Structures are given as structure tokens and as C-alpha cells.
Amino acid sequence: MQSRFRSDRRLTVRMTVTLFLLGLLYVGFVAALIVLLKSWLLVVVLVGAMFVAQFWFSDRIAMFAMRGRVVEREEYPELHAVVDRLCAIADMPKPVVAVSEMDMPNAFATGRNPDHAVVCVTTGLLRRLDPAELEGVLAHELSHVAHKDVAVITVASFLGVIAGLIVRFAFYSQLFGGGRRDQNTAAVFAAVIGVSAAVYAISFLLIRALSRYRELAADRAAAHLTGRPSALASALTKVSGDIARIPTKDLRTAQAFNAFYFTPATGKEPGIERIFSTHPTLEQRLEQLGRISAELGEAATPGKAG
């Protein structure tokens, strides 16, 4: 079913191209592993099992890692009311609503499709935002579900996860047992590491590029659905500023899930490493919301928090 979130053809094209390129990379990666390891059954079974596990259980994995728990209407009536209202306006199924007991102000959406989705907010976010700002953040997250880019990011990240795990396994294997290999085994070992590292690097860059664009697309869709881009801009300004004040050691656990967050858990704006960032800069996001605010005839107040 098509939701009332504004469709984004450029996002759809980018998701299609990214999945196509990663699909080619995936086929090449599996073929290379089969040739190097000389066991197609082992490679196909392992890679296939991990893909199914990540795709079907991605929401549970993310919820477990971020200490999120499903909450009922009786416990968080205002949060449920905002989600209910937005889903009614957008004409989309209501996702499972969850809360994470973290002081870091943030939110994320996950799930393989709109009928199996979860929207999770942290208690730190709920404490800091007013109702209009919270509505903007939740509209942003719901647009990820409606555009299906959550599922695309989940599938797209699979190849990089596999390649990264192989590199780590190979590293520790070399560290603790490297002296017991003959020359042939060592050559195959090195080739597997090389192929995995290359695949990880390429998939990493492709996913980051898609992730940055999908965040801008979600901001646009949320601003048009709520009609209040300035409230979303205010939430962005407030959340980004508060995350910057949280000690880096408290953000490290969350950084693995940056691609799914409303704002990245880095505590700083990307500089020269912008190409590796999961999100566009705060300035880019506020500038876009300012333009939408002008188009809608709303008084733009992106720097004002609440």
C-alpha cells in the first residue's frame, strides 16, 4: 500500500542502483570465496544463513543492541498518540513502538517492511523535545519505513558485515595460529583477506552515499507531511548540540548503528571524513528545511530550539 508520504523518485533510483551494484559485488564475492576455499556448499550455506538471519531478525538485533523494549499505550500514551496521528495522516500501518533507556537523545526505525517495522526513541530524546519537535522526529523515522529504505539499508549492509567478519576472523586467526600454515594455505588465506577487505571498502562507500541521501529524503518527507519544517529543524539543532556534549566513551556502543539513527552518535560534525559519514552535515539539513519552510510559507526558525 502506498503511503501519503511524498514519494521520492531520486531516492528510489539511488536505492535501485546501490542494490544492483552491491548485487554484482555480492555475486563476485561469493564466486571468489568458492574458488579460493574450494567448497561452494560451505560458502553458500554460511553466507545464505547469515543473510536470512540479518534480514529477518534485523529489528530484534538492533533493539537488543540499543537496549530497546516494546512499550504499550498505557506506559507511554503521548508517544503512542503522536505515532497514531502520523500513521493516520500518512495512511500507513502503525509500527511497533519502543523506547530505549539511554540518555543519548536519538531515534531509529528498523524492520524488513512497513508491516514488520519498529520505531524506537530514547528516553533522552523524550526528555529534551517538545511535542512539535518529537512529531517531526517521528515523522522522519516513519518516512524511512514508508520509503522502504530501512529494508534496503539492512540488505545493503549485509555484504559489508560478512566481509568485515571474515577480515576480523582472519586477523585473529593469523594472530593466534599463523605459524601452523603451509605456503599454499597462507596464499589462499591472504587472498581471502584481500578480497574481503576490497569488498568491505566498496560496500562501505556505497552504503554511506545512500545513507546520506536517504536522511535528506526523510527530512523532506517529514517536513511536508507535518507542514512544520521549523519544528524538525529545531529538533535537529537541539539533538545535535546535546549529543556533542555527551562523552565519547558513552557514544561508542551506539556508533555501530549510526546509519539507522536520526542524527549520528559521533558528537562532532564530519570534516574531511565527510565521505565516510552516514549523515549529511547539520548545515545541509537545516538549509534544506529552511528552503521547504519558505516554500510552505512558514516562518523559518531552524536555530530556535522549541
From TrEMBL:
Residues 77-290 form the Peptidase M48 domain. Gene3D superfamilies: Metalloproteases ('zincins'), catalytic domain (3.30.2010.10). The keyword Transferase does not apply. Keywords: Cell membrane, Hydrolase, Membrane, Metal-binding, Metalloprotease, Protease, Transmembrane, Transmembrane helix, Zinc. Its EC number is 3.4.24.-. InterPro entries: HtpX_protease, Pept_M48_protease_HtpX, Peptidase_M48. It comes from Streptomyces fuscichromogenes. One of its GO terms (molecular function) is metalloendopeptidase activity. It is found in: Cell membrane. Pfam families: Peptidase_M48. Belongs to the peptidase M48B family. GO terms for biological process: proteolysis. This is Protease HtpX homolog. The keyword Lyase does not apply. Zn(2+) binds at residues 140, 144, 215.
